[in-house]
Amino acid sequence: MRISIRLQPRHEASAGRQIVVLLLSLLVGFVAVGVVFAVKGVNPLYALWKILAGSFGSLYGISETITKAIPLILIGSGLTLAFRAKFWNIGAESQLLMGAIFATWIGLNLGPRLPGWMVIPLMFLVGFLGGAIWGALPALFKVRFGVNEVISTLMLNYVAAEFLNLLIVGPWKGITQQGFPYTDDLPPSATLSVIPGTRIHYLTLLIALACAVILFFLVHSTKFGYELRVVGENPEAARYAGIDFFRTTVTLMVISGGVAGLAGVGETAGIHHHLTYPGVISAGYGFTAIIVAWLAKLNPLASIVSALFFAGILVGGDAIQISLGLPAATVHVFNGVLLFFLIMGDAFVNKRLVVSLVRRG
Amino acid sequence: MPGAGIQRFSATIRHGIVTSTVVRYSQSIMPKIDLLEMIDISKSFHRTRANQRVNLRIGSGEILGLLGENGAGKTTLMNILYGLIAPDSGEIRINGQAVRIESPRDAIELGIGMVHQHFMLIENHTVAENIALGLSDAPFLSPSRHVARRLVEFGERFGLKINPQERIWQLSAGEQQRVEIVKALVKGADLLILDEPTSVLTPQETEQLFVILRRMSEEGHSVIFISHKLEEILSICHRVLVLRKGEVAGKAETKDVDKRELARMMVGREIIFRIERPELERGELVLDVRELVVPGDRQRMAVRGVGFQVFRNEIFGIAGVSGNGQRELVEAVTGLRKASQGAVLLGGQNITNANARVVASRGISHVPEERIRFGVVPNLFVYENAVLKQHRQRLFSRVLFLNFGSIRKYASTIIERFNVSVPTIDTPVKNLSGGNIQKLILGREISGQPALLVAAHPTYGLDVGATEYIRQQLLEKRGEGLAVLLVSEDLEEIFELCDRIAVMYEGRFMGIVSTAQATMENIGLMMAGSMPEGAGAGADSKPEGAGAGAGAVPGGAGPLTSGAAGDQE
């Protein structure tokens, strides 16, 4: 006798089934994370409760969750675009940083000179450009030289981070910052106003929501979105149909990188008001957004919801760090485990598990 | 250099040094298959009943033909037998004993081998590596070395020429199939399932395959031969089982039935075997290809100086065994590959090396070979696939946005006009049968009033009903003034449809003849690279392709480049 476990293909994946699988994946993911908590000697249910309470249990928690959801919505919806075309952009973190760097240059150098109403729009524009350039580079490498985009986007993260480190201790080090590795603070005309009592820089939030909506229509209703899906699903058919692989790939990465750049503008002009260490400017948003896009089933609109969810985990994670004395890495473990189960769950949408006992004859 | 070891090794093979390697192959623990029965097999996919209480039995040494239209359930039934699909109900017995086949591995252990219609080979690996991959007793280190000797042995024994070190992507479809067949044989299959095995073979190769099959049968092997070519079933099979819409529509000893009877069982109605091709005065010049030279995937030139013209109201056929440059020629004409020399003119305008998008907009439409790989996006819906390529036209898109209203209407029109059987246009194309996918592609490609249709193997792997339909459509469009460039390996198709026939061999045309003056035999000889006596007379000897690649013609008779029958200007 032996036990046979097989995945059998299903003919059709219903929407209901997708949701059930999604929820089950999350549940199993939570259980697995619970084991981590238990090993650390913390009651998993209590920890989970603390996370929830920290992120959604108070007005302050909710405002922080929304604040952290802003970059996640932007980057997450941008990544859905890249992932639809099977372009694995792991470099949103650096695209965010380049957006921050470009925008800060504008803010510091032109902010005091230009009329006030022009500065912020210009910063967003140039920030988009910064992210777009950093996103387009690996796209160019891929279509021209066949460089694997996973490697190039990942490595460009380090390049951008070290470039930022260089700027803040070197040429851009602020004279008003008493030796700290910060740039000078942005002038008032180059900072974003917030909802009083919170850190929510509402202009970026509006841009993020608009982005999600625009990208949704871009993917589903436009010629470009159609070509992008054809390229992702069957590159050979795309070639046959005369779809320009070069143009499609570079364009989508200009957009995907560009919106990550917008997130960088928001973080700098809305929260920090100067450039500092890469890990402070972005709390790993570029990586967390990968899970955001995946949980959203690569739907830009749904990434609003999944961004809020993961922002909640980030905020709640901070909370349990303090209240339960768990290390900072806990949140990363949390996110990693959830992504793992989400991806595994995909296998069950189109397949069914068959377990049976087999007699060997 | 991963290939270095293999190259060195194959060099030793060529010099005949490797003789001491003793190779043992998977010997199944199971006894030989004397009788295999499939009893009351049923299987449904969603709303479609693919198999309904199907019974099949095959004895040792028997060649059983499995006949049926596309979507009749032949492949489903065989996938069940090979463990790829679990049946909803029913039982499989070997030598009277019930067995469970839950995966191809189980099937192989029981002595069942299968050669699929769509090849299951790893493109970037060599022939030897692909064959070593499935062998359980291949050693951990250099497993391909282990099989190469056996491979050569099989090649000699069965007359299946394969170079063990060649990479799969470099092989033509016909050669790839030979690899698949040898792969199953090497694994020691008692029962071999062949899914549409002859569709890519030349008549000569088919004969060779039949010789192998008869030899296997004499040795007590059983063969299930899936086909919808009636002559083949009658010539090779002992018995035949006919499926229609998932049910057994009839079974017979092949000596007791004829083509007509089988056809009736298969489609449930009489079918016409000869399509009427009215003689038409050919119209003005549409496509003018001049001394085209096109590089192939391998370093050498695949097309070496080919020139021809296609006119309105004409179907121009290119016959030949696949892998003689037809694919590269088609790709160069449709903008998918750059020619290195020569010119392509459409309606007098030079479109040489224009990209696919421009070529399509100038009025060349294309029914590609390997329709699922190139012609559609399987995960997208029918309506989305109905405008692949046409989606940029003003009818279907405004400045930025697609006009889904008119796209859906257009898709519905195609489906209705071209008898594509599909539940709704919101079905993913991957759920359609091959015949329906091809009707969708053909509909899409000829609905837009193109000047020229390039059709590559348009009926390859399709059942009689769909084949007949596609051919009728091509002739109808010819009547309406369309110029058609038809590439096919199927001589019957070439003779039925074409006004003029060119035979391609080693990147050149052996000749261009008008169908009225051509004989099946002469064309067959030209396909094999020899010039039939007398056929070359009156040639208007076209000049060779500016000497390009001329030095690279492999030894032996270089093909004559001559337009026979003198119907070229």
Write up what this structure looks like:
The complex is a heterodimer of chains A (361) and B (569). With 361 residues, chain A is mainly alpha-helical. Helices cover 71% and strands 4% of the residues of chain A. Chain A has 14 helices and 2 strands, in the order βααααααααααααααβ. Chain A has helices at 15-39, 44-56, 59-84, 92-109, 116-145, 149-169, 202-221, 223-233, 235-240, 245-272, 278-281, 285-295, 302-323, 329-349; strands at 2-9, 351-358. Chain A has a two-stranded antiparallel sheet. In chain A, helix 4 (92-109) packs parallel to helix 6, helix 4 (92-109) crosses helix 12 (285-295) and helix 7 (202-221) runs antiparallel to helix 10 (245-272). Chain A starts with a strand and ends with a strand. By secondary structure, chain B is of the alpha/beta class. Helices cover 31% and strands 23% of the residues of chain B. Chain B is built from 18 helices and 20 strands. Chain B has a 6-stranded mixed sheet, with helices on both faces. A 6-stranded mixed sheet of chain B has the order 16-17-18-13-19-20, with helices on both faces. In chain B, strand 9 and strand 10 (247-253) form a beta hairpin. In chain B, helix 14 (404-417) crosses helix 15 and helix 15 packs parallel to helix 16 (464-479). The longest helix of chain B has 16 residues, at 143-158. The radius of gyration of chain B is 24 Å and the shape is globular. Chain A binds chain B through residues 4, 6, 8, 11-12, 217, 221-224, 226-227, 229-230, 233-234, 236-237, 239-244, 354, 356, 358-359, 361, and chain B through 45-46, 86, 97, 99-100, 102-103, 335-336, 355-360, 366, 368, 373-380, 384, 388-389, 391-392, 397, 400-402, 404, 431.
